[in-house]
Amino acid sequence: MATPDERVVSRPQGHGGELKGSGTCLSLLDHPEQKETQELAPGQLAMLRKAQEFFQTCDTEGKGFIARRDMQRLHKELPLSLEELEDVFDALDADGNGFLTPEEFTTGFSHFFFSQNNPSQEEAGEQVARLQEEKVYQSRGNADPRDIDQDEEGQFQMLMDKLGAQNVLEDEGDVKQLWLQLKKDEPHLLSNFEDFLTRIVSQLQEAHKEKNELECALKKKIAAYDEEIQHLYEEMEQQIKSEREQFLLKDTERFQARSQELEKKLFAKEQELERLNQKQKRLEGQCTALHNDKHETKAENTKLKLTNQELAQELERTARELQDAQQQLEILQQEACKLQQEKEMEVYRVTESLQREKSGLLKQLDFLRERNKHLRDERDISFQKEKAAKANTVAPKVNWKQRSGSVIGKYVDGREILRSQSEEEEDVFGLQRRKSSLSLSGYSLTEEESGTGETAAGGPTRRALRRIISIEEDPLPQLLGGGSEQPLSKCPEEEEDSEQAEEGQIQQATPLELTPTTPRGQPVGKEALYKEESSPSTPDRLFKIVFVGNSAVGKTSFLRRFCEERFSPGMAATVGIDYHVKTVNVDDSQVALQLWDTAGQERYRCITQQFFRKVDGVIIMYDLTVKQSFLSVRQWLSSVEEAVGDHVPILLLGNKLDNEKEREVPRGLGEQLAKENNLIFYECSAYSGHNTKESLLHLARFLKEHEDTLRKDTIQVGRPAKKKSCCSG
Ligand SMILES: Nc1nc2c(ncn2[C@@H]2O[C@H](COP(=O)(O)OP(=O)(O)OP(=O)(O)O)[C@@H](O)[C@H]2O)c(=O)[nH]1
Ligand SMILES: [Ca+2]
Ligand SMILES: [Mg+2]
C-alpha cells in the first residue's frame, strides 16, 4: 500500500529552488552541518533541530505533514488548551490549507521562537540596517574609488533590498554591472533604470505570488485528494475487515452446522454399527444352532439312506415276486380262457346235437302220427263195420269220434283254451315240480279237433293240452349224460292227441323220414328245426339269451321270424320254455345265439326265473298296442335284476310296429325307459320283420365286444373290468 507520505514530502522538495526562504529551511534540515558553516548561527541551528524534533513528535505516523488532528493530540503532552493549540496551528498554517508542511512549521516555529525568546535580536537587526543605510549615504560623498566601490555596492544592495529583488532575481551580478555602468556613464538614466527595475521586480513578485498561490491550490487539492483516498482506503479497510469478519462468522456457522450434521451422522452410524453388531451376534448364534442341526440332520440322513437302501432292496424283491406272480397269473388266465372256450364249444356242440336229436325225434313223431292216423283209419273202418253189424246207439260214439278224430286239428287260437285249462295244467306242473323237473314245451300242441275252436269240447281238449314235454331245468348236461333217464313225462292220451297236431305247427317236418339220430327217444319242441345245422363254419363263441315279456306280445313270433324268416299268425301261447340256436356273423366272427323262449303267462314265471342262470343277455319284449304289456316291463326288469344282477345287457323290444293304428305306447316312452335303465332299445315287428335282425345283431355285437374287453382286461391287468354300458338303438 502506497502511503501518501512520500509524495507529500517530495513535492516541496521539487520546489525547493524557487522559494528562497523555505528552500533554505529545507536544505537546512537536510544538511544542517553544511549550512551551519555557511550562513547560520549556532542558535539558529539548535532552533531548527528543535523544530525538526517537534515536527516529528507531531507527525507520529511519519506522513511528512501535520494535520489539525495531529496537533490536537499534543494536548496531553503540552501545557496548552485545545483552543490554544488551534491558534498555534492557524498561525503556523501560512497558506491555510489545513496542513503544516515542514517548511511552514520550521518558518513559523523559528519566527515564534525568535519573537518570543529573543526579542532583542530584532531590534538589533533594525539597528544594523539603519547603520548600514547611513553608511551607504555616507559613502556617496567620498571620492575614494575603494570607498566609492563600497559605497556603490551598498547603494545597490539598498536598492535591491528596497525593491525586494533578492528573492526575485537569481543572479544580481548582471543587474549590478548594468546599474554601475549607468551610474558611471549615464547617471541621468539611473533613475529610469531603477524605475524599470522596480516595475520588473514588482511584476516578477506578482508572478511569483501567483505561482505560489497556484501551487498552494494544487497542494490543497492534492491533500484533499489524498485525504479522500485515505478516507476511501480506511473505509475500504473497514469494509474488508467487516466482510472478513462476516465471512469468518458465516464460515464458522457453516462449519458448526456441518460439524453438528457430521456428529449426528456419526451418532447414527454408531447406532447402526451397534445394531449390526447385535445382528451379527444373533446370526452367529443361529449359525451355531444350524451347524448343530446340520450335524444331527447328517446323522439322520445317513440313517434314512440306510433305511432307503433296505427298502429299495425289499422293493426290488417284491417287484420280482410280483412279476413272477403276474407271469403265473397270466399263464393261469390263459389256461382259464382256453378252458372257457373249450367249455363253450362243448356247450355249443351239445346244443347242436340236442337240436339234431330234437329234429330226429320230431320226424319220428310225425312218422308215429302218420302211423297212428293210419291205424285209426283202420280202426274207424272196423268200427263202421261193427256198427253196421250191430246197429246200436250212435250218439256217444260220435262225441268220441269228434274229440279224437283223425282229422289233424288246425291251430286256431289255443291261447283261449289254454287259459281255460289252467287248472289241469297246474296239476301237471305241480307233479312235475315235485319230481324236481320243469316243463319244456317245444310248442303248445293245443290242437282242436276239426279246427272249430269251440270251448264246448271241454274234456278231450283238456287232455290234448297235457302233451307237455318235460326236461330238466338245465337240459344240456343231462343230455350229455346219456339216455338212461326218461325225463319227459307223457300223458297216456298224448299219443292220441298228438296225432291231431299238424299243419300250422309242423309245416317243416318231413313226415316219412325216420331218422333216429339221437340215442334217447326224447321228444322235444316241434319248432326246433334250425337252419344253423347247415351252417358250414363253427362259431367262435356262444351266448345264452333269455327272452321274456308278457304273454302274447309276440316273443315266439319274433323268434320264428328271426330264425326261420317267416310269420305265422295265430300262434299258440308258449307253455313252459323253448329254445333256438342261431348262428350269426358279427364282424367276421361266428357267434352262436342260444335263444330261450319263455312263456309269458303268469303261472310260468317261476320257471322262467330259473332259466336266468348263467345268462349272457336278456330280451324284454312288450306289445306297443297293449299298454299293460309296457307297464309290466319294469316288473320284468326287476325280476331279471333279482336273478342276475345289473351286469347283464338287456335289449328292450316294442313289438307289432306294423299295427301302428292301434299303438298305445308312444315310442318316446320306450326310449325314455331304455335310457333310464341303460337298455338297448328297438321297435320292431315280427309280422313285417322290421328291426328283428338289426336288434338281435346289435345285442350280439354288444355281447361280443363286451366279452372281448373283459378278456383283454383279465389278461392284461387281472382286475375285474367295469360293466360296459349298453346304448339304446
Ligand atoms: N300284427 C302283429 N301281430 C303279431 C306280431 N307278432 C305276434 N303277433 C300276434 O300276436 C299273437 C301272440 O303271439 P305269440 O308269438 O304267441 O306271443 P308270445 O309272446 O309268444 O305269447 P306267449 O307264448 O303266451 O308268451 C299271435 O296271434 C301273433 O300272430 C306282429 O309283429 N304283428
Ligand atoms: Ca499549510
Ligand atoms: Mg310264445
Automatic annotation (TrEMBL):
Annotated region described as Disordered, given as residue ranges: 1-26, 442-462, 475-537
Keywords: Calcium, Coiled coil, Cytoplasm, GTP-binding, Metal-binding, Nucleotide-binding
PROSITE patterns, per the entry: ARF, EF_HAND_1, EF_HAND_2, RAB, RAS
Listed InterPro entries: EF-hand-dom_pair, EF_Hand_1_Ca_BS, EF_hand_dom, P-loop_NTPase, Rab, Small_GTP-bd, Small_GTPase
Parts forming coiled coils: 197-378
Single GO cellular component term: cytoplasm
Localization in the cell: Cytoplasm
CDD domains: Rab
Gene3D superfamilies: EF-hand, P-loop containing nucleotide triphosphate hydrolases
Compositional bias per record (Acidic residues), positions renumbered to this chain: 493-502
Pfam families in the record: EF-hand_7, Ras
Entry keyword Nucleotide-binding: yes
One of the protein's GO biological processes: positive regulation of calcium ion transport
This protein's name: Calcium release activated channel regulator 2A
Organism annotation: Sciurus vulgaris
Gene name linked to the record: CRACR2A
